[in-house]
Write a structure and sequence with these properties.
The structure is a single chain. The protein has 200 residues and is of the alpha+beta class. The protein contains six helices and twelve strands. The strands form two sheets. Strands 2-3-4-1-5-8-7-6 form an eight-stranded mixed beta sheet, covered by helices on one side. A four-stranded mixed beta sheet has the order 9-12-11-10, with helices on one face.
Length: 200
């Protein structure tokens, strides 16, 4: 699920645009923390629109999109797990229902919403790595007690999908002379091996 924090006056128009031809709608309405709504768009992507209130009970004028991960009671555990893996990370807010954290400056939110929704590889998070050491680190730490797949994909122990990929892959794929050999090389890999890609 993607969470969008926006000015209140824009929320209704954005909700109508996202929910057009969509389904599973919870129209915008007032809550104690602000103005809130949720919908599934026509592509099957779930959106939560949230216009927050500040400490003075005034609506915050923000425009930010960030992922909201739906957990069955493990949001705090997951936030601590991810923050232990990414060096530039921190938990920014926590209560029994919602936990917020940042990984390399990217905000995330964990919602303890119960067993209604499960994670799927249809939604994954990409980590572009400069070095093989970075790839090895994220591959090992995120995949521990989870499941490793092909071509840099893994599911962590909470079921969240990640792609651990070398940053240079795009450049290699753009080279018409190397592209096919690079594809053939990484199709044989689970964890990416930068040296083998360069030598393909």
């Amino acid at each position: 699920m993607n969470k969008v924090a926006i000015p209140k006056e824009d929320a209704d128009n954005l909700y109508l645009a996202l929910s057009e031809s969509g389904s599973d709608k919870a129209p915008m309405w007032e809550e104690f923390w602000g103005y809130w709504g949720c919908c599934l768009d026509k592509f099957g992507i779930r959106w939560m629109l949230n216009v927050m209130k500040d400490q003075n009970n005034k609506y915050e004028m923000k425009n930010q999109i960030y992922p909201c991960l739906w957990f069955d009671g493990q949001a705090r555990e997951a936030a601590e797990f991810y923050c232990s893996i990414f060096s530039n990370s921190k938990i920014t807010e926590a209560n029994p229902m919602v936990v917020k954290w940042e990984l390399n400056g990217q905000p995330f939110m964990g919602l303890n919403g119960g067993p209604l929704y499960k994670f799927s590889p249809a939604n994954s998070y990409v980590i572009e790595c400069e070095t093989q050491e970075e790839i090895d680190h994220y591959w090992q730490k995120l995949g521990e007690d989870g499941r490793y797949s092909q071509c840099g994909w893994l599911d962590d122990k909470f079921g969240v999908s990640w792609q651990v990929v070398p940053k240079l892959l795009g450049k290699l794929m753009a080279d018409p002379e190397k592209r096919q050999r690079v594809v053939e090389a990484f199709m044989q890999m689970k964890k990416f091996d930068i040296e083998k890609l360069l030598n393909a």
